[in-house]
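From the pipeline queue, job 12 of 40. The input is one protein chain; the requested action is below.

Action: predict structure.
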Amino acid sequence: MKIFSADQIYQADKSTIEKEQIKSEELMERAADQLFEWMHSRLRGTQVKIQLFCGIGNNGGDGLVLARKLQQHGYSIKVHVVNYSDKRSEDFLFNLKRLKESKVWPNVIAEESDLPELSANDIIVDAIFGIGINRVPDDWVGRLIAHINASQAFVLSVDVPSGLPMDKAPWNPEYVIQASYVLSFQFPKLVFFLPETGVYLNQWEILDIGLDPEYIAKTETAFELIGRPEVLPLYRPRLKFSHKGNYGHSVMIGGSYGKIGAVQLASNACLSVGSGLVTAFVPKCGYDSLQTAVPELMVLTGSRDKYISDIDIPFEASVIGVGMGMGMDDDTVSAFGTFLKGSDVPMVIDADGLNILSQNPDMLNDVPKMSVLTPHPKELARLMGYWNSDFEKLEKAMAFSAKYDVVLVLKGAHTITVYKDKGYVNTTGNPGMATAGSGDVLTGMITGLMAQGYEPLEAAMFGVYLHGLAGDLAVSVRGYEAMKASHLVEYIGNAYTELLRQPEMEQRDNA
């Protein structure tokens, strides 16, 4: 699903109005219909008080239309117009008139007004600012927003939480609505998925308001949301007359004394995601434990006992995963640098492999093109420098990806895979995956997918999705706190099964 920018959304509105030859207030009516139906289907028969806070732009206009429809269906409502400017949109004025014709007289809130009385039992509809906010709210509006946040009421935001800009971090974190739920028109917003901005909402849902499908299909966006519909076409079913040689030979390089488990997790995940063959290259201290723990795994060792000091792969690998638990001994750094210079096999680089690159940036020029780098936030900062906001982080990541022609997997609550000027936002995963070794499992999964012939970008997107889905399935049994990285490996098969589940089976299970 495409994630449109604010400017693109405005253009989609304009294109829809022009092609359908309708007025803008008709499109606003259509949007409010969807808002009302969502609320009505959940509140029908209740006597809860609904307080609507409407700005004086088009977002406020949406709120006024919603108020009229709620009033017509017998709901107990109170409408507040937040008078933050002398300018009013035409659609706001049109719908204010219609609301008054319905005998609803809004309470106008201005700078000198007292804050309205709110109850934790109320439902609050936030339609103060929309996607076009371009400056910090005035202090008195900020105090109103803080008052709403302190009410403990259920807060439903229209399109985006008010005070949250679309393309930058909030000017003042206290001047942003903390939404219980966001009903977003037509498209998800990038701010829903970034650590700095996603904290302002608990849940969100898309309302289809019928924007121009041709414009949507033809318009390229900088970001896409990756869910089951986007991942399922990537899946490559296995052929009946195939053998292990058809699914690649992965090599996992890493480990040091006390950190062999990282290679074990990655190698096990690589096998479990479908790599035909997997060989681990570790220091001698890891030989016995790996051969015992993962009997399907082949093991090579370097010349040293406790850390890697030389890397020699005596066959041509399909893909190489490297860095897990590898350490940063001087000999290890030297061995990794030499290995990079002599290899053109695509790699998945994680953990200490990334840390070595960040301390030796010249080595980045030797990383094979279209390799996949999988940093967590601290590793990313060491690799490309710190950022002032999540938006700057994405800009720097795209520039880094383009410079070195690599795929970047920015791990987090909504892992974002970046290749050059495009980002892919993942939809699976949960806080139970914030545990030691989870990243090693992801490295193994992406490596195993690349071994089977998935293109690096496809393998990264697919691997991230499958990794998160395995976590979602595992956490339903294990719980957040008790989940371990090894549980993710156990549930990779279940994740494949869930991905491939047929719609008719889902309907039968829900019957």
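Job complete. The mean pLDDT is 96.
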